[in-house]
Amino acid sequence: MEYTTFGKTGLKVSKLGLGGAPLAGDFGKTDDGEVQRLIHEAIGSGVNFIDTAPKYGSGESERRIGKALKGLRDQIVIASKATRFDMSYDYETTIRSVEESLQRLETDYIDILQIHDVETQSYELIMNETIPALEKLRQDGKIRFLGVSTRVLPLMMTYMRTLKFDAIQFYARYMLIDHTAKDEVMPLANKLGIGVINGSVLGLGMLADAPAHFLEEDVRMKSLKQIEQLAFLRKTEPKGLVEPAMRFSLSNPDIHITLTGTASLQSLRTNLSFCDGKGLEPEELHKVYGLFQGQALFD
Fold it and tell me: Measured in Å, how far apart are the chain's first and last C-alpha atoms?
């Protein structure tokens, strides 16, 4: 396992982090025992970062993580989020959201608390109520660092420039068929000392030949055409773009944490095998960047 320092926070984090949505059963049925075994194997293999949210399984992900981390809390950097798409982001709701997360996670503090999907809320509400609530929780010692998550990169940079945040998380924005985060967001994060978490490096399943059922048809068709151009990277085994997709992110020094979202021990073990510091060959990387430079898969 490779480790890095997470921006200006000083936290030492594994380059591979565990994503919490599948742990709730959001992408297939799971049970507490399976999740506990997976988390324990991840920790035993050197993973020390877990990302979750109240949204995942309506709190089930946090509950299962809290249960699995009994006696192991001091070994793990926990990142969670506030609030949820079906809740308000006002001051009182934000406070309540984090308090409930603390209870489910069975911990006194959360290392990194991110505002979830800020594109769903007004900028004024986030600045005037959500952030002050999180700052109060930080003063009380219940959270350590603030983060922001969104797939909308111009909005991400707007929040980064407020200098309120220690961490950012985007998804499907630094992957083989859409690497637009590298053009402005990642350089700005580097300049400001902000930690970078990269989610959905498999493009919501598209690069694993298993696109998520909720993806719109035009996105699927566009991705298929782009994936055809990546034949030079494809491995012979099933889901042959998983390895190059993971290595593409894991080897980028400007990405501190690459999340793997899985509830499968076999998938976890496969992704762990890519944590050896080897990325794409230079000519392969150059070709990938050239194929889709400036092209966003999503609006």
Answer: 34
